[in-house]
């Protein structure tokens, strides 16, 4: 307990004895506060604890007047044990069975519950403890001092269903009250079954009385049954005599049947031999039909292959035609590219032939410039008067040199452009050459494929001619086999007639 009622700070009471049954002590020793602490944890309201508000449960002595506590907390610790003796220590604790139920009262008259350190509601706590045998609803496990006198003054049993007597109180404590309704239902069922039993017993007695009245009729019926039994016995003797006579007749008929069976066996052997011959003829006819079917399927497959070859030949012819057209276009394009290349080469040669002359002219002008600049510097050193005249002369020479520089720049740009066009034409020529070689190789492959296809077509036509000859032979054999089959059918019908005649002779006896 922490700051609960008269207990300041944290106080630990217990552990209680395993057979704890009561708390005793003089007045003012704190008995009621111990019980109130447990009642507080088990959900009793403040008025049940002789207080008006929950906040009054917080300790309020003068010792804590300067720093009053803000809450009161009570924790009840449980553990499951296995009791194996009467001694105080004759038990051991079940592992991991410890449970702590805590309730905290606050200054704002609210309270919270905790189960094993986790916040919980009262219903969850009550359900958990009820599963362990602690019923918080009826509270028969924690009796206050004033309730002992009330229990002793209870009547032995409640006068009505809702009244509570000592019997009902004890049934609540031991837990047998939950069986009262089932017991009452069982008693009602026993009463109903007793009435049903008495009814059945009365019916049995009535039937026994009727049975005694029918005794004379029973004896008369037994006499009649005895006479009928004697008649049936005499009829049985007569039936045995008739059976002996019939047995003799059957022996004579059996001898006649054996003779007829021997004749029937001979006839059946002849029929079996005829059936074997018919089966051999049918087997030969079936083989011929299979050969004809195989040849027919092969002819059909050959026709399909020939048709496929024709389609492939048409496709190859179209591809050859397309490749030839493509080749002519590539040749024309290559000729045009060659002409462009020759023009570019001519321009490059002209530009290249002009470069040395221009470079010589540039070097001459540069030398002249250097000479003039030296003269200019000499004159400038000697005199400052003629500077303007010399500068004008220099500007004139520079103006004369400017067209030459411009011409050289244009020629250099034309040279670079011609080199770029030449490289492009060389690359285009190499690509056209590669494509032309690829087209020529593809054309050669197509020619080879066409030659092989023509060879295959000629071979297929030869095979087809031979297959037509074989088909004519097979058709001739098929007509002969059809004539033989009709002859065999006529013989088979004749044999069927003779077979029916033999069966008719067997049925005559």
Can you put this structure into words, describing what you see?
- It is a single chain.
- By secondary structure, the chain is α+β, with helices and mostly antiparallel strands.
- The protein folds into 2 domains: about 150 residues, Rossmann fold (3-Layer(aba) Sandwich), CATH 3.40.50.300; about 230 residues, Helix Hairpins, CATH 1.10.287.2610.
- It contains 7 helices and 8 strands, in the order ββαββββββαααααα.
- Strands 3-6-7-8 form a 4-stranded antiparallel β-sheet. Strands 1-2 form a two-stranded antiparallel ribbon.
- Strand 4 and strand 5 form a beta hairpin.
- Helix 6 packs antiparallel against helix 7.
- The longest helix is centred in the middle third of the chain and has 168 residues.
- It is flat, with a radius of gyration of 67 Å.
Sketch the major β-sheet. Answer: 4 strands, antiparallel
Low-pLDDT segments? 497-509
Oligomeric state: single chain
**End-to-end Cα distance:** 119 Å
Number of domains: 2
CATH architecture of the largest domain: Orthogonal Bundle
Overall SS class: alpha+beta
Number of strands: 8
